[in-house]
Amino acid sequence: MQQDHPSEGASRRAVLTGAASAALIAVSPAARATMSEMDEAIRAFTKGAPIKQGGVKVDIPILLESGNSVPAVVSVESPMTPADHVVKVALFNEKNPLPQIAIFTFGPKSGRAWVSTRIRLSDSQKVVAVAQMSDGGFRMGMIEVIVTLPACAEER
Questions:
Q1: CA distance 51 to 132
Q2: Which residues partner with 127 through β-bridges?
Q3: Dist. CA 97–CA 146, nearest whole Å
Q4: Where are the beta strands (DSSP E) in 2-99?
Q5: Which among 29, 19, 15, 4 has a CA at the least distance from the CA of 154?
Q6: In this structure, are 80 and 14 located in the same domain?
Q7: Distance of CA 78 to CAs 49, 55, 114, 115, 147, Å?
Q8: What is the DSSP string of 106-153?
Q9: Are residues 26 and 41 both part of a single domain?
Q10: Which residues pair with 130 in a beta bridge?
């Protein structure tokens, strides 16, 4: 039977403790996306293509008591025909730990480009929806919301 050398066990323990600490820091409440990270996530979604303002409506209450379960509705103006329809809608936020909330897929048989969901918001921030159209273009809508009791993060 072979025994581990005491320094090897301590080294292994130190590595595991360090890895666990790094994981906790990575998901800690203090970790938040920034405006530039949100912009980068939007650029990745659009692959750098220009985005037209308008044609996308983000409907979220402007003043929220709690960010734990926020109703969000996104709608895009589109005839939803085979020649002219919404392909995808992505929802982004400015201050949550991850800047991309969700991506919804549509097609001409969807009838209308409309989605309702619930999201968590860590603080007062901008929420942006970007729609990819069948012609390859992109449209955007945005709303700024005020959250009085944040979700995703708690002060200790």
A1: 9
A2: 93, 143
A3: 17
A4: 51-53, 56-59, 63-66, 70-76, 86-93
A5: 29
A6: no
A7: 19, 8, 10, 14, 31
A8: --GGGSSEEEEEEE--SSSEEEEEEEEETTS-EEEEEEEEEEEE-SS-
A9: no
A10: 90, 140
In tens, the pLDDT along 35-54 reads 899 999 999 999 999 999 99
When divided into structural domains, the chain yields a total of 2
Residues 130 and 56 in one domain: yes
Task: Give the rounded percent of residues in the chain with a pLDDT score beyond 70.
Answer: 76
Q: pLDDT grade, residue 119 (50/70/90)?
A: very high
85 in the same domain as 42: yes
Q: Which tokens is 114 given? A: 């409309």
| Count of other CB atoms within 10 angstroms of residue 44 | 12
Q: Using the structure block, give the residue that is written with the tokens 């379960």.
A: 69
Domain extent, residue 16, equals 1-31
Entry pTM: 0.76
The answer to whether residue 156 sits within a structural domain is no
